[in-house]
Amino acid sequence: MAPILIDNRGVIKLSLISLLITIIIFATGYFSGYQRAIQLNTMVSETEILTLPVQQISLVSDVEPQSPEKML
C-alpha cells in the first residue's frame, strides 16, 4: 500500500479543517448540555426551609480528652 503524500499546504488545510470540526462539535455539545441543565434546574429547584439543630447541654466529661482503653 502506497503512503499518502501530503504537501505543506495540504497539512495546513487538513489541520484547520479538523480543528474547525472539533470546535463545532464541542460547541454544539456544550450549548445543548447547558440548555438541558438550565431546563432541569428551573423545573426542579424549590425553596425548602431547613430547621437549625437544637443546642443540647453537654457534660464536661463528654468534652474532655479521653485515652483509649487497653484491648485484652
Mean pLDDT value:
80
- Tell me the Rg in angstroms: 32 Å
Counting helices, strands and paired strands, the structural category is mainly alpha
Sheet of most strands: none
Q: Runs with pLDDT <50, length 5+?
A: none
- List SSEs in N-to-C order: HH
Estimate percent helicity: 55-70%
What overall form do the CA principal axes indicate?
Answer: elongated
Extended strand count: 0
Distance between the termini: 77 Å
Count up the helices: 2
Strand residue content: under 5%
Walk me through what this model shows:
- The chain has a domain at 10-39.
- It has 2 helices and no strands.
- The protein has helices at 8-44, 60-63.
- It starts with 7 loop residues before the first helix and ends in a 9-residue tail after the last helix.
- 0% of the residues are buried.
- The model has no long low-confidence stretch (mean pLDDT 80).
